[in-house]
Automatic annotation (TrEMBL):
<dbReference type="InterPro" id="IPR023393">
    <property type="entry name" value="START-like_dom_sf"/>
</dbReference>
<feature type="domain" description="Activator of Hsp90 ATPase homologue 1/2-like C-terminal">
    <location>
        <begin position="12"/>
        <end position="152"/>
    </location>
</feature>
<protein>
    <submittedName>
        <fullName>SRPBCC family protein</fullName>
    </submittedName>
</protein>
<comment type="similarity">
    <text>Belongs to the AHA1 family.</text>
</comment>
<dbReference type="InterPro" id="IPR013538">
    <property type="entry name" value="ASHA1/2-like_C"/>
</dbReference>
<dbReference type="Pfam" id="PF08327">
    <property type="entry name" value="AHSA1"/>
</dbReference>
Length: 161
């Protein structure tokens, strides 16, 4: 049985600014890791059919064993679609010896203009069964909060004289 997890948040910035944060490796390192983790992009190829590898490291791995090692999650992300400034579709595969994390999870980032900015909806389909649903949804919400803080701070700094 496949599982779908979702989260959304409105970001006080136009879709192009949000799309830029979804397609910049240094930006992703800053905002994508949920609370309690840090991330590093190991390689980058921004095009449909391209992708990147991200290593996520738990700041305190106690009680939160990683998928790849006790302290890390390594995930290979393929870009299935890049539709500026509306949508990014990614296919994620975790590096793990545990079959509970096997398979390809599809993550779709939808960007919808609103009067106050952009509604960002993340939909994760075919979530591996080893990923706890409440923890995953909390992590998605944390990443969206980080994204909002990242993009909104840059919007504010660009408006300064």
């Amino acid at each position: 049985m496949s599982r779908t997890d979702r989260a959304d948040r409105t970001v006080a910035a136009p879709p192009a600014a949000v799309y830029g944060a979804l397609t910049d490796p240094r930006a992703l390192e800053s905002w994508l890791p949920p609370e309690g983790m840090r991330g590093h992009v190991d390689h980058w190829d921004l095009r449909p059919g391209g992708g990147f590898r991200m290593t996520l490291t738990y700041l305190d791995p106690t009680g939160s064993p990683g998928k790849t090692s006790d302290a890390t999650d390594v995930v290979d992300i393929g870009f299935a679609a890049l539709v500026p400034p509306e949508r990014v579709v990614q296919r994620a595969v975790f590096t793990s010896d545990d079959p509970a994390y096997a398979g390809t999870m599809t993550m779709t980032w939808h960007l919808t203009p609103t009067p106050t900015g952009t509604k960002v909806t993340i939909t994760a389909e075919d979530v591996p069964p080893g990923i706890d649903q409440p923890t995953h949804e909390s992590g998605l919400a944390s990443s969206l909060a980080n994204l909002a803080a990242y993009v909104e701070a840059r919007q504010t700094s660009h408006r300064q004289p």
